[in-house]
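[recover] target loaded
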């Protein structure tokens, strides 16, 4: 039986975290697959050591118009059969948010979902992105494929997924319509893998840097590994690596067996 260990991390700048011993951490962990969000760089801005990691195939999606914005990366020991940078809806293909990797056991989506806090326009963009993704991923599941979704979803799902739910009811990231979308996503046949193993509050993946929230564990759980229902029996572990520093987010982990 093969085991696949996936890690996912919003690094809040790949060049910045490179200076904080990111590659030492990466070499120590040796995941089969590492999904990175918010690289904030184009490939030509990155040191060679981040573009060529021994033992890994490396893929990037970067923002076309705004340098230093968004961006995702995929490091994979096994070369995927195919890698795409959109799901066919080209209005969402230019911000460097999407890597879709096709493996034999599953289709992996490494996504940095939009943040809606900046303006009503960005909130509308975020909700449209959500809807387009849901429509697409439903069609993939209908074709009988196993699906893994990894990334910064930029929404805390329920009240136990953030430290101060009442104070944030009108803040993007915990708005009723954002949370309702996660309900619909899960209702479409997806599983929040962390909640398979832990139903307790107090576990978060993002903390505000300016207020020193991490030291007080005043955080939000907005980074997720979701899997299609067909993968439920293959999920062996899902955890939050909250002791790993270097970003305002921490990594999350998923272990599958086949």
């Amino acid at each position: 039986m093969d085991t696949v260990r996936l890690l996912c991390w919003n690094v809040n700048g790949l060049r910045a975290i490179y200076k904080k011993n990111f590659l030492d951490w990466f070499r120590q962990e040796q995941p089969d697959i590492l999904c990175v969000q918010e690289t904030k760089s184009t490939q030509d801005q990155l040191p060679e050591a981040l573009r060529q990691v021994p033992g890994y195939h490396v893929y990037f999606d970067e923002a076309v118009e705004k340098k230093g914005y968004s961006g995702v990366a995929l490091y994979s020991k096994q070369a995927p059969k195919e890698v795409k940078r959109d799901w066919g809806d080209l209005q969402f293909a230019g911000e460097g948010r999407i890597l879709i990797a096709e493996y034999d056991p599953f289709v992996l989506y490494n996504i940095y979902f939009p943040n809606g806090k900046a303006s009503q326009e960005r909130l509308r963009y975020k909700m449209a992105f959500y809807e387009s993704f849901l429509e697409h991923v439903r069609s993939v599941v209908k074709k009988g494929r196993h699906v893994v979704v990894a990334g910064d979803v930029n929404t805390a799902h329920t009240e136990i997924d953030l430290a101060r739910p009442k104070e944030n009811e009108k803040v993007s990231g915990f708005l009723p319509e954002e949370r309702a979308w996660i309900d619909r996503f899960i209702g479409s046949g997806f599983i929040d893998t962390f909640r398979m193993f832990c139903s307790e509050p107090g576990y978060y993946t993002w903390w505000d840097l300016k207020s020193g929230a991490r030291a007080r564990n005043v955080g939000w759980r907005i980074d997720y590994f979701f899997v299609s229902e067909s993968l439920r029996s293959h999920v062996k572990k899902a955890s939050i690596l909250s002791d790993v520093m270097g970003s305002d987010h921490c990594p999350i982990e998923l272990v599958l067996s086949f």
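[recover] notes: The chain has a mean pLDDT of 97.
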